[in-house]
Every structure is written in structure tokens, then in C-alpha cells.
Amino acid sequence: MTVNVGVIGVGMIGQEHIRRLMTTVPGATVVAVSDVDESKAREAAALLSGVKVYALGEDLIAAREVEAVIVASWGPTHAKYVLAAIRDGKPVLCEKPLATTEADCSAIIDAEAAFGRRLVQVGFMRRFDPQYVAMKETIASGAIGAPLIFQSGHRNASVPAHYTGEMSLTDTAVHDIDIARFLLDDEPETIMVHAPRRNSRAGDVPDPLMTLIDMRSGALVAIETSVHVAYGYDIRGEVIGESGTVSLADRSEVVVKANGAFMGRVPADWRERFAPAFDAEFRAFIAAAGEGRVAGPSAWDGYVATVTTLAGVKALKTKKREPVKLRRRPKLYA
Ligand code: ISE
Fold first, then answer.
1. Which pLDDT does position 97 carry in this prediction?
2. Which of 47, 40, 52 has its CA nearest to residue 19?
3. Measured between alpha carbons, how far is residue 282 from residues 115, 125, 130, 146, 256 in Å?
4. pLDDT at 1
5. DSSP code of 205?
6. Looking at ligand 1, which atom is closest to the CA of residue 125?
7. Regions of the chain where pLDDT drops below 50
């Protein structure tokens, strides 16, 4: 059986998702695309055969031929598309953030709860990364004792010109926040953000940032975001437990020994580092969509991530520890 997918947003990530759906994910085919810039949607459709172009994302979602939806448009537009997909009862994989405001995330949760079953998967691909999955299994096995501290390093070689200090939280640290919740099985309680000496490459952007999150259990999450490191895309992670630690191993296809030193490869960007995670994420979405379900990170996970990053944006300004105030979790996400 083939799942007919409609993709909203054909920017860099949207195109990456289309390519993945057409080449590496079994049982999926892209049948419709849409973009605020209709000419871009036409260009993307022209590379495939039999793909319809819709001027409006809502029309793509409502289209008879579309059975599942990918939302890869600009963040502030996510909520209206996700709400439309829920209204039409279609599984939707929404890139992060689920929505840019707490109110919109809450509206999605309410709509999904009223619908009565999950239709929304949020694009936190790290949950499908084999290394993070192995880390979670290690922690859950009890091998390192109760987790006390999670140190996460998130380094980008560079970021686009429109990138702001707030985006270090909403666009970058958001992944570390989600994976912290996944690994520790815990929720954030407070957040504070330190902006130490600035990288001279960073211009106006406070970079690096050190974000400290107290979790409900008392465990501490420390996230370093550095988005101008120049040397590559470097994702670090270690959980320190009561009697042991588990960390992401440095991996490289080859090790080169030359001139008295040995070297491995640092990925260029998130597409390279997380390719296996994106593959697994899309396979899970399509397999579940074929059965009218969704799997993976939920609207609740998207809600917590947005509330936490927005509290972080506030903490960056106030230089104080800010509370992360979460609503009660509906039964649907138990
Ligand atoms: C980007 O949007 C991502 O999602 C990447 O995973 C992250 O590393 C990068 O910092 C973000 O800008």
C-alpha cells in the first residue's frame, strides 16, 4: 500500500523531505505540494511526475488525493496547517516548532484531544537517531543509576544571516530540550540562560549560550549552543548518572593517520549528521500513516518544547531563572 503525501513548504527542509519520501522511504509517494511562493512549488513539482500544486496549504490538506501531510513551512504558519489536518482527520508530520506560541500549541492539543486520537507527529528527529536511542536504552536499563546531569552540546558551523539570539533557543536548543525530556523521562521546571564571552564571528547574536534547566526530578540539563564554530556540525551529549555515565560516541566512517596525528570526519551540517534519524523518522511516520495512526514525538512534546524555549527567551532577557509553566497533560498523551 502506498501513502499519498502532500508537502507544505518547499524550502531547504521541504525539498529534503520530498527527496527522502521519493527515494528512501518505502510505501510513500508525494502527490501534492504547496508553498507561499507558488513559483517555488511549481519548480519542486516539475522535478517529479504527477504532482499537483496548490496555492493554499489548506486546499492541499483538504484534497481527496492527499492522505498524509508534511508541514515544512515557516514556523508561524505551522499551527493553522496542523489544525486543518486535524479537522480533516489526516496524519500530519510537522517540523519543529509545532507552533510559535503557547496558545497555538494548546489549541492544537485541544483539537487533537477533541478528535479523540493522535494525528500529529512533531519533527524532533533526534528521537530516531540510533545513538540517542542507545543512550536512552542504557539509562532505562539502570546501568548508570539515576540520571543526575545531562550535558548537551549543539554546535553549528554557521547560521543564516536572519538568525537571532532568540533562535539559539527556539530553533537550535529546542532539539536539546526535547531530547533531554526523552532521555530523562522528565519535565522542565525552570530555565536560565547565560551569555558568556561572544564569538567574534557572531556579530549581534549572543553566541555561545549556556542554558540551564532544572527538571522536576531535580536532575540538571546544561545545554551549550554555539552556532559559529566554523569547524563543522558537532553534537555532543553525556548523561551523568549515580554510578556511571553514557555519552554519544564520536563516529567517523574512516580514521586518517598522517603527519603524526589521527583524524576523523566532522559532519558539515544537520542533514549529514542526522540522515539516519530523518530516514527512521519518515519511515515511522509513513508506516503509521498507512494505518491511520501517528508515532513518535507528539503534540504534547511540541507544546512543552515551545513553552520551555519561550521561557528561555524571557530568561535571556531578564538574566533570571524563569519558571516553565506547563498545563496539565491530557490523557491522550499519557
Ligand atoms: C536548524 O533549524 C535545525 O533544526 C538544526 O537541527 C539545528 O542544528 C540548527 O541550529 C537549526 O538552525
1. 98
2. 47
3. 23, 9, 14, 32, 33
4. 83
5. S
6. 6
7. none
| Torsion angle in degrees (nearest 10) through CA of 77, 80, 86, 87 | -150
Q: Is residue 333 part of a domain?
A: no
Q: Which three cell numbers stand for residue 137?
A: 536504552
- 82 and 113 share a domain? yes
The confidence score (pLDDT) of residue 262 equals 95
Domain limits for position 139: 127-270+306-323
Looking at residue 250, what DSSP letter applies? P
Q: Which of 12, 10, 11, 77 is nearest to 45 (CA)?
A: 10
- Cα 119 to middle of ligand 1, angstroms: 24
Atom of ligand 1 nearest to the CA of 159: 12
Give which of 20, 15, 4 is closest to 281, Cα–Cα: 20
Query: How many angstroms does the Cα of residue 228 sit away from the middle of ligand 1?
Result: 12
Residue of 163, 172, 309 to test ligand 1 pocket, by largest number of atoms within 8 Å of CB: 172
Residue 198 is predicted with a pLDDT of 97
The CATH code of the domain that includes 196 is: 3.30.360.10
Q: Would you say the CB of residue 298 lies under 6 angstroms from ligand 1? A: no
- Ligand 1 atom, smallest distance to 167 CA: 12
Name the residue of 154, 163, 171 whose CB sits within 8 Å of the most ligand 1 atoms, as the mutation to test its pocket. 171
> Ligand 1, from 205, 270, 309: best to mutate by most atoms within 8 Å of Cβ?
270
CA-closest candidate to residue 60, choices 35, 23, 93: 35
Task: Kindly report the backbone phi and psi dihedral angles of residue 311, in degrees, each rounded to the nearest multiple of 5, phi listed first.
Answer: -65, -35
Report the nearest-CA residue for atom 11 of ligand 1. 172
Q: pLDDT tens across 242-273, in order?
A: 999 999 999 898 999 999 999 999 999 999 99
**Residue 252 sits in the same domain as residue 131:** yes
